[in-house]
Amino acid sequence: MPRPVIAIDGPAASGKGTLARKVAAAMGYALLDTGALYRGVALTMIRAGVDLGDAEAATATARALTAADIDRLTHDPDLRLDTTASGASRVSAVPGVRQALLDFQRDFAANPPGGLPGAVLDGRDIGTVICPNAPVKLFVTASVTVRAQRRFAELQGRGENPDFADVLADMQARDDRDTKRAVAPLVPASDAVIIDNSDMTPQQVLDAALDVVRGRI
Ligand code: C5P
């Protein structure tokens, strides 16, 4: 029997990562934050001083990443930097990078680590490309202004002094790149349930998600 997969996709700062964590905990499933893979490729290149626009180097970097590298990178605080995020958004448009990371993601979904009974994957193309047969597909979103406000508050919380217009422009640029790229653009799967949480509390979002999950698994 294939292990059930819960695919959670959505744009930056939509709250999909937090939701994925809570859903995985509620179901006792393994969790893979697939954005960390693209961030890991970008961070490795930045540290090696390699130009992020070099598609061949990006593909080679993605191919060379081992499960141990990924585990180490997911604990690296620099993975969360804005420079890493925009680097990730650039390298993620390279078809060779996406192809190199595809097997890792599918393998995680098919064989969740620790023998757990299922997997939650969150990203941009889980329901459309990585796990098109997932029994549960959620597309989590919020208006770009609400997402920029969340990001702004997060940066302030870290003691930074951001400019709201910059944060908003950055969010729009990332949305643009993610939705307009030729390969695996950010788009809801035709059978995804869309949760727009612009006016929802975190608890309402979790309840809505678990309602869908329990109806399908
Ligand atoms: O979700 P997160 O902000 O960590 O993702 C960083 C970048 O990685 C995104 O802007 C997107 O370009 C890319 N990404 C992707 N496909 C995924 C996950 C992330 O293209 N499944």
Automatic annotation (TrEMBL):
Recorded superkingdom: Bacteria
Classification via InterPro entries: Cytidylate_kin, Cytidylate_kinase_dom, P-loop_NTPase
Enzyme class: transferase
Keyword terms of this UniProt record: ATP-binding, Cytoplasm, Kinase, Nucleotide-binding, Transferase
EC number(s) from the headed UniProt entry: 2.7.4.25
Catalysis performed (reactions): CMP + ATP = CDP + ADP; dCMP + ATP = dCDP + ADP
Record's subcellular location: Cytoplasm
Major subcellular site: cytoplasm
HAMAP family: Cytidyl_kinase_type1 (MF_00238)
Family to which the UniProt record says this protein belongs: Belongs to the cytidylate kinase family. Type 1 subfamily.
Name the record gives this protein: Cytidylate kinase
Lineage, highest ranks first: Bacteria, Pseudomonadati, Pseudomonadota, Alphaproteobacteria, Rhodospirillales
Underlying gene: cmk
